[in-house]
Amino acid sequence: MLTPVWAVVGGTILTAPIWANTSPKRYEFAQIHMGVPVRITVYAVDEQTANQAVRAAWNRVAELDRILSDYRSDSELLRLSRTAGPGHPVKVSPELLFVLERSALLSKRSGGAFDVTVGPLVRLWRRARRRKERPTEPRLAEARRRVDYRAIRIDREAGTVELLKPRMRLDLGGIA
What we know:
four-stranded antiparallel β-sheet, about 40% helix, globular, alpha+beta, three-stranded antiparallel β-sheet, 2 domains, T-fold
């Protein structure tokens, strides 16, 4: 009899059929990723199969962190923020392109209430929290000038993203 193995990761179901005559058991795993606890539940016929499935899931979570994180200096997102200024479209991974396309749609539908270009403000407030002091009005105004969801040009065919204002910074905390 063919028994599937199920791993649920952030709403995504991964399946791997295996041959077995036993009922699947529930296995739970937890780790910290992207600064938050992540829990994966796997149904498998044995622990070895569960471990194999969860290892693949953790690898995918780590890969997405390397792409989407705004905390990791080596992430694709931060590389994009550093290099995709006006006149410089940057080739991005399909995963980042997908998230940015969805972000653009949400920004448009919300009239800008949702905006992934809020990175300059997020960075300023993070620094203020560490220093335990409110940002000055001039610094807040400067950060606000670099925030505008309409200043992202996404070229799906070319797989590129261009940030149309200097020193823009993306933050995917509201979507990814």
